[in-house]
Amino acid sequence: MKWSHSLHAIQFWLAKTDRAVVHTIDSHTNLATAVVVLSLCVWGIVTHHLSFAIAIIGVGAIAFTLGATLSLFVSVVLTILSVKTGHEFNATLTTALFEFVGYLLVARLGFKHRQEQNVLQKRGQTAMTHRDQVMPWHVSNDIRTSLAAVRFLLFPIRDEQNHHSVDEAMNELSRLEKLFEEMEKK
């Protein structure tokens, strides 16, 4: 029985750790992808593949504006062109592999960024559909005064039991309810 309890404790700890690790990976995936893409761009510039650095920006822009499918198609075409125009087979194949990975990663980044922007725009639109309701000063002052009166009537300072104060509190709450109903009609 005792080993069963410790086995459950270990399973619980592992599940908790798994959730934390997956959450950390999920929350840092875009950053890691951006760092890899930037590193590949720097690699392209350092190895005199300036066309790769320009192409990777283009693939990202295509993914952002036109979608991931077209961006992936352009990535495949650019990779095939890189292989076909290369002079040394081994170096070209390695270079083409690095380029293709870069194209895939930047396509993912561009597409994800566009999705996140769409989500933010939808949230903004739903927030804008509700009209701001501004309460006049005298209404808020009346509500504050009424709530203070209700509190005083329900919880008097003295220890007297008085049913009259409960009735007054109910009347004051009814008056507040009518006030809100009038505000909703406006």
TrEMBL record:
Which keywords, in A-to-Z order, does the entry hold?
Membrane, Transmembrane, Transmembrane helix
Residue spans crossing the bilayer: 29-46, 53-83, 89-111
Q: What is the lineage of its organism?
A: Bacteria, Bacillati, Bacillota, Bacilli, Bacillales
Q: Which organism is it from?
A: Alicyclobacillus hesperidum
By what name is this protein known? Uncharacterized protein
